[in-house]
């Protein structure tokens, strides 16, 4: 009896372990996605997983959100998967805002063709109330398709789509396209005095209704001297439809693009995180800067807590007292969460933290309306320590394999129960040599050196079929990981089957002896 219960315990542990790592879906790392905050949900859509086998790996129809109305820890994120309602074609380098007549619609803009050459409509809208995507009818002529830009929404529901590119280095533009998200019409703003054409810049709406534009690059090729300086910033006055140039002073960040920038809680400071420059390695300690827009002086903020790596191609949103950084590239998902939280409530010292405390509920009309999303969503609980394997294994292995494994385990359990003979060594237990094969470590894919800050030059570079867009490859590609984890799983399966066979042999032997 005692033997039995310890056997159950071992099996149960194994069972839980397998359930945890294999039967959970978790979003893989991505970059050049969109992260949109609507009704206390941070929606993640689109993006790429980097260059794999010389072509760009585009994230499929993944669509999920993080509920930010409740506390969470970045090491245990509860993603809600709503991919089943996603009708937007695979894409990356899009931009999104929250707008619309009720100020709770998610607008997605992407001009250029996705990889499969399917021309996706310019604008999609997502209504969180009905959990559905729509291709809105927009009046006015616009055939301009741009990507790698930053859409900014003003307080009148107008979305400003300045600059960007159309897929090749010689099609970067500096025009101002304006989408009225309330009456659904296209308009155009001035480009007199606008900065030179660029992509992957930073942009923020300031309380004085001017949009500030920072940095960027003059071409798609990642490893070239195309990164723009940040000592000059540009202001677009949304009231006057006019541009001005502002020089900055202080501790100006080195040239960079593909960083994130947000407005601080005082409405005065612009906080910049991450970015890339082929010619300068941006270290974690060099990844955070603040621009005081009352003096246009840059400084390096005092910051506590730990940041393991710089990121680029990520997104950032201000939620409550945090700058919430999502996904991106150049971090190791087995070591660092897809989500970083910078507590920006104290201007004298920002803090990298893991625990998110939701802001007190604000009496906004839209947040009072109950949404139906909880009915169609599936909670995905994911400890970050196992995120890599959960991600890769979870993605790689369909639920059928998962189910088969569970069936095997259930069968084992059944046999175990039926056969009351002692057999201490039939099943590997944690701690013994065989049991160690079940250790998490053996299922983890080799580390990606590429995340190492000093190794930027090692990144492989390849163009996708735009002929110009370059995304850095990560040492071990996602697809390769899938192969690895597949074989790891195969090994695990084999071991279980072998154990099962042993079980049978022993059992039948014992039965024969008894006869
Ligand atoms: C929409 O909501 C945001 C806050 O989430 C607010 O800053 C903005 O002014 C609102 N826009 C409109 C048009 O009401
Ligand atoms: C939408 O609003 C803009 C100004 O914000 C106006 O110029 C345009 O005519 C309006 N379009 C429609 C269809 O109402
Ligand atoms: C910047 O880096 C690129 C690629 O690594 C190189 O071709 C270029 O010469 C560098 N420029 C400078 C100024 O170092
Ligand atoms: C690299 O770019 C910077 C600024 O864009 C420029 O000052 C510098 O001369 C460039 N270097 C080369 C080698 O092209």
List key phrases describing it.
5-stranded mixed beta sheet, 515 residues, 5-stranded antiparallel beta sheet, binds 2-acetamido-2-deoxy-beta-D-glucopyranose, alpha+beta, kelch repeat, Neuraminidase, signal, disordered C terminus, Galactose oxidase
Give a short synopsis of this structure.
With 515 residues, the protein is of the alpha+beta class. The chain has helices at residues 2-22, 365-368, 373-376, 387-396, 399-418, 478-514, and strands spanning 34-38, 41-45, 48-52, 55-58, 63-67, 72-73, 76-81, 95-99, 105-109, 123-127, 132-134, 152-153, 158-162, 176-180, 185-189, 202-205, 210-214, 232-237, 242-247, 249-250, 260-263, 269-273, 288-292, 297-299, 303-304, 315-319, 322-326, 339-343, 350-353, 355-356, 378-383. It contains six helices and 31 strands.
């Amino acid at each position: 009896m005692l033997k039995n219960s310890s056997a159950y315990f071992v099996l149960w542990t194994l069972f839980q372990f397998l359930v945890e790592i294999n039967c959970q879906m978790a979003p893989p790392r991505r970059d050049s996605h969109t992260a949109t905050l609507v009704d206390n949900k941070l929606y993640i859509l689109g993006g790429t997983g980097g260059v794999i086998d010389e072509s760009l790996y585009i994230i499929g129809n993944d669509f999920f959100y993080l509920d930010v109305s409740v506390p969470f820890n970045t090491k245990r994120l509860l993603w809600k998967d709503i991919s089943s309602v996603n009708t937007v074609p695979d894409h990356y380098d899009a931009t999104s805002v929250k707008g619309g007549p009720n100020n709770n619609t998610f607008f997605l803009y992407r001009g250029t063709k996705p990889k499969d050459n399917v021309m996706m409509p310019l604008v999609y809208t997502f209504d969180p109330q009905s959990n559905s995507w729509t291709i809105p009818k927009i009046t006015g002529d616009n055939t301009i398709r741009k990507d790698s830009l930053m859409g900014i929404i003003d307080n009148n529901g107008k979305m400003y789509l300045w600059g960007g590119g159309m897929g090749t280095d010689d099609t970067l533009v500096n025009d101002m396209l304006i989408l009225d998200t309330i009456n659904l019409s296209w308009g155009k703003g001035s480009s007199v005095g606008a900065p030179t054409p660029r992509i992957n810049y930073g942009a923020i709406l300031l309380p004085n209704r001017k949009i500030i534009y920072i940095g960027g690059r003059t071409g798609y090729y990642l490893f070239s001297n195309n990164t723009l300086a940040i000592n000059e910033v540009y202001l677009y006055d949304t009231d006057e439809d006019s541009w001005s140039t502002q020089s900055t002073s202080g501790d100006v960040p080195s040239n960079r693009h593909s960083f994130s920038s947000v407005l601080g809680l005082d409405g005065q400071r612009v906080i910049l995180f991450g970015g890339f420059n082929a010619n300068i390695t941006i270290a974690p300690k060099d990844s955070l800067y603040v621009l005081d827009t009352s003096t246009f002086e840059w400084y390096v903020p005092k910051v506590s807590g730990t940041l393991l790596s710089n990121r680029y191609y990520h997104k950032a949103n201000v939620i409550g007292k945090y700058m919430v950084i999502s996904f991106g590239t150049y971090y190791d998902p087995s070591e660092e969460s897809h989500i970083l939280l910078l507590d920006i409530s104290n201007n004298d010292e920002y803090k990298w933290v893991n625990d998110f405390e939701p802001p007190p509920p604000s009496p906004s009309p839209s947040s009072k309306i109950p949404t139906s999303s909880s009915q169609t969503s599936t909670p995905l609980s994911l400890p970050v320590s196992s995120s890599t394997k959960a991600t890769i294994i979870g993605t790689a292995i369909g639920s059928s394999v998962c189910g088969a494994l569970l069936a095997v385990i259930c069968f084992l359990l059944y046999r175990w129960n039926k056969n009351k003979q002692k057999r201490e060594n039939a099943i590997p237990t944690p701690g013994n040599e065989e049991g160690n094969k079940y250790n998490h470590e053996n299922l983890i894919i080799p580390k990606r050196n590429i995340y190492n800050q000093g190794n930027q030059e090692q990144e492989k570079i390849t163009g996708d079929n735009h002929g110009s867009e370059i995304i850095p490859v990560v040492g071990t590609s996602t697809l390769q990981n899938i192969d690895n984890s597949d074989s790891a799983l195969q090994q695990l399966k084999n071991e279980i089957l072998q154990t099962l066979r042993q079980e049978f042999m022993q059992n039948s032997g014992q039965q024969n002896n008894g006869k």
